[in-house]
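Sat 14:20. Reprocessing the chain from the morning session after the first attempt stalled halfway. Input below, unchanged.
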Amino acid sequence: MRRKSTYGFTLIEMLVATVLLAIGVTASLGAISAATNAEAEAHRIQTASMLARQKLADLAVQGLNGQLSAVQQQGTFAPDEPDYHWSENSISTQYTNLFEVTVTVTWGSGNDQHQTAITTYMQNVDQGTLNSTNQSSPSSSTSGGFNGL
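Finished this time. Tokens:
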């Protein structure tokens, strides 16, 4: 009578373990790749949002100088960010010197084109009115109620 040895692994057990390990490694590499792609896309969206806010700040300065107008224009952020393009759409509102401004930043090309847009309202400051308001003396009389913001 021979006794069967119970030490070690059989060939079938080793093949099953190898296949399971290969599936696990493949899934891990796929997850790492997906996370890397998601991080890169998040970085592109963050860059586009920052560039849109930068363009809106430039337009706000134009509004403070009384140079804001109802226009549609476009451009690029080259040489710093040549892959990103902007378009501005300023529309007059029913209120004097108030504009609805939309800045759209686009990146990518063909079927892989993405965009982000920011819309806000901006006032075109009339320097003549602003200077005459600043030169007038403040009123000392008050009426019952809230004075100021």
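The longest helix spans residues 11-64.
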